[in-house]
Amino acid sequence: MKFGFIGFGEVSYTLSKLLLALDFEILSSIEGRSQKTIDLINSLDLTLLDSFKDVAKESDVLISANSPDIALDIAKNYGNLTNGFFLDFNNISPKTVFEIEDILSDDKFIDSAIIGRVNSDELNIYLSGSKAQFLLDKIKKEIGSKGIDINKMDFKINVKLISDKIGDVSKLKMLRSSYTKGVSALLVESFELAEKLDLEEELWEILSLTENRDFERSSKSRIDSSKKASKRRYEELVEVLYFLDNVDNVDESKIMARATKDKFEYLKNRENKE
């Protein structure tokens, strides 16, 4: 079984490492990629093809892990070229998910997500769609045929099948994204203000007393990633709000989500000026 990747960032890199360890062939391309991405691709033993169209045509499972704003174009341009399954791991709204389903049909498309830290030794993957269980069984069967005991690997993969309905995983992603990005925005704002007041260390100390021992380390990591990826976070929140507007059209029910989007828009614009 061959897995192909359109786009090659942190998600694709992590999934590729795990799949290579399970003796699957990984396809990708350096077509139009930055030097940073090329270096990341070359750090793994991948099969590189001339173009992403070739990757799509040769893959049994084609994976899209890009930014939300190009997810639909990726599905249009490459999803129809594969004879296998198309998995979308982007943080996109259910509306976009259903548009992809209309393009590809639920016989080919599987709604997908990684929940939690991507670069950890324990990966949590969520799937939904009419063919999700079929694909999962097929992968497990091939791993078994290779004589690989997945329980003895240096990593752990938890795969949860949510339902046979396209869109259910995406809905969970949107709700989780609204929560986690709201927390991140509040952390950034609170500690930037504390820094101006020269009370940053004291704020870490008192919050660690009421939260948990690992609070400072995990929060600093969250603040750092939020600033570095403010553009991506903003794009994801646009998708989140589109989803929430369809769930409840009362503006007051989404005050926090809208404020979070505005905060990341500010961080994005500030980053562009620096």
From TrEMBL:
Domain named Phosphogluconate dehydrogenase NAD-binding putative C-terminal: residues: 194-265
Cross-referenced Gene3D superfamilies: N-(1-d-carboxylethyl)-l-norvaline Dehydrogenase, domain 2, NAD(P)-binding Rossmann-like Domain
Listed name of the protein: Phosphogluconate dehydrogenase NAD-binding putative C-terminal domain-containing protein
Species, as recorded: Methanobrevibacter ruminantium (strain ATCC 35063 / DSM 1093 / JCM 13430 / OCM 146 / M1)
